[in-house]
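dumping this here so i dont lose it
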C-alpha cells in the first residue's frame, strides 16, 4: 500500500477507535447519568420527527436538573459529531485509495467528491445546526419558538439521512472491494 493510503488507514482507525470510545461513554455513562437527572434517557437529538408539543412535554419531564445536565451532553455531542465526520472523511479516502491501488478501479471525481466529502460534511453541518437549535430551545424554555423547533427537527432528520447515506456508502464500498478481490482470485486461478 502506498504511504498516502497507509496514512488514511491510520487516521481512519484512530477516529474509529475514538468514535467507539465516545459511543461507549455516551451509552454507559452519560445517558444513564442523564436519566438520573431527568427521569428519561430520551434526548432531543436522538428523537426522530418531533414537534413543538413533544419537545415541550420532553423538557417538562426533564426537570431543571435534566435540562442543566443536557449542557454536558451537547458539549460531548460537539466532539462526537466531529469524530464521526473525520472518521467518514478518512475512511472514504482510504477505501477509494485502496480501490485505485489494488484493483485499478477508478470512479469519477464528481462521485468521489459527493460520497467522500459532501455527504459527510452535510451530516456534520446538520448535526451542528441541530445542536444550535436545541441549545436555543433549552435556554428559552418554557418560551420556545415553534419555528425553531421545526428547524431543529428538519436538521435532525437531515443529519440522520446523511449519516445513514455515509454509513451505507462505506458498507457498499467494502462489499465492492470484497467482490473485486474474489474476482481477482478467480482470474489468478485460471
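and the seq i came up w/
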Amino acid at each position: 500500500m502506498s504511504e498516502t493510503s497507509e496514512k488514511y488507514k491510520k487516521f481512519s482507525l484512530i477516529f474509529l477507535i475514538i468514535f467507539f470510545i465516545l459511543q461507549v461513554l455516551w451509552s454507559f455513562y452519560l445517558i444513564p447519568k442523564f436519566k438520573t437527572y431527568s427521569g428519561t434517557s430520551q434526548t432531543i437529538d436522538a428523537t426522530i420527527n418531533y414537534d413543538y408539543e413533544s419537545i415541550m412535554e420532553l423538557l417538562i419531564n426533564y426537570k431543571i436538573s435534566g435540562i442543566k445536565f443536557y449542557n454536558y451532553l451537547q458539549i460531548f455531542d460537539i466532539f462526537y459529531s466531529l469524530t464521526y465526520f473525520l472518521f467518514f472523511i478518512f475512511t472514504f479516502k482510504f477505501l477509494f485509495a485502496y480501490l485505485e491501488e489494488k484493483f485499478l478501479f477508478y470512479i469519477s471525481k464528481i462521485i468521489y467528491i459527493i460520497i467522500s466529502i459532501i455527504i459527510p460534511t452535510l451530516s456534520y453541518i446538520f448535526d451542528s445546526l441541530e445542536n444550535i437549535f436545541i441549545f436555543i430551545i433549552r435556554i428559552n424554555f418554557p418560551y420556545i419558538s415553534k419555528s425553531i423547533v421545526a428547524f431543529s427537527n428538519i436538521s435532525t432528520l437531515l443529519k440522520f439521512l446523511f449519516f445513514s447515506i455515509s454509513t451505507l456508502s462505506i458498507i457498499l464500498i467494502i462489499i465492492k472491494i470484497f467482490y473485486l478481490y474474489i474476482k481477482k482470485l478467480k482470474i489468478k486461478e485460471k
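Helices lie at 3-38, 52-103, 109-140, 146-189.
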